[in-house]
Design a protein that fits this description.
Strand content: 15-25%
Shape: globular
Structural class: alpha+beta
Radius of gyration: 22 Å
Largest sheet: 5 strands, mixed
Length: about 240
């Protein structure tokens, strides 16, 4: 009985909204959210795969789902039952958004360890002082041998104006970035250096694409591998072995 009442109420609400254009619905949801959550910036609103729910992308990288009237909200992953099993609809959206953000960012500022026979490129958000980042860096020559180019993006977890952040800036500003990165990852002292650099921009990019810890490996299709993965397993996952 309760299910029938809910279904009727939802159907009635949908009927009431039937003559409202999609643009008006999206504007209403955006307005209600920004009024209810100070500081929230709504980046986009669009109808989701689930009928009656709208997908909202915000400036903090979270995906929010809202009803047409913007009164009811839901956070978390939206799952879909398919013939192949359960698919994560929200993660698929995140992956595409991440791919687009990475493509839009100027990759000229990365510290790159290129493979001679390049078959794949991985973008690694790294913290010089992170133990597992150092473990991954030890395997960069092996990754290069597999044909994987490693592009480093700065993500000092302690944030701006900290020793770790300044250390990354010194590495980036060094005359030989690769040698400086090798030294820093090995725990050796790197000469202090300062210059105009993209460390803060890369750190902020990491936040937007959903980096919560390091290393975070972003693949070319936008998928993210969270944490350290042995070189051989990464190469296998990329279909190179």
């Amino acid at each position: 009985m309760k299910t029938a009442v809910v279904a009727f109420a939802f159907g009635f609400g949908s009927l009431m909204m039937a003559n409202v254009s999609a643009g008006e619905v999206e504007d209403r949801i955006s307005e209600r959210l920004t009024e209810a959550v100070p500081g929230l910036q709504v980046m986009s609103v669009k109808e989701s795969e689930a009928k009656g729910l709208y997908e909202v992308q915000s400036n903090n990288g979270d995906t929010i789902y809202a009803t047409e009237d913007g009164q009811y909200l839901m956070t978390g992953d939206l799952l879909k039952i398919t013939d192949q099993g359960i698919a994560n609809v929200t993660e698929a959206v995140r992956t595409e958004a991440r791919r687009e953000m990475m493509a839009d960012f100027d990759a000229n500022g990365v510290i790159s360890f290129p493979a001679e026979n390049e078959k794949a490129v991985v973008s690694v958000f790294t913290d010089i002082d992170c133990p597992y980042c150092r473990k991954l860096h030890d395997e960069v020559p092996q990754l290069n041998d597999y044909g994987i180019t490693v592009n480093y993006y700065a993500f000092p977890r302690s944030g701006p104006n900290t020793a770790s952040f300044r250390k990354y800036e010194s590495v980036w500003c060094a005359d030989d970035q690769q040698a400086a990165m090798d030294a820093a990852k090995a725990g050796r002292k790197v000469a202090d250096a300062s210059c105009e650099n993209p460390v803060r921009e890369q750190f902020e990019l990491g936040g937007r694409v959903g980096v919560t810890g390091t290393p975070a490996i972003v693949l070319e299709d936008g998928n993210m591998v969270r944490g350290y993965v042995p070189a051989q397993r990464l190469a296998e996952g990329l279909g190179l072995l």
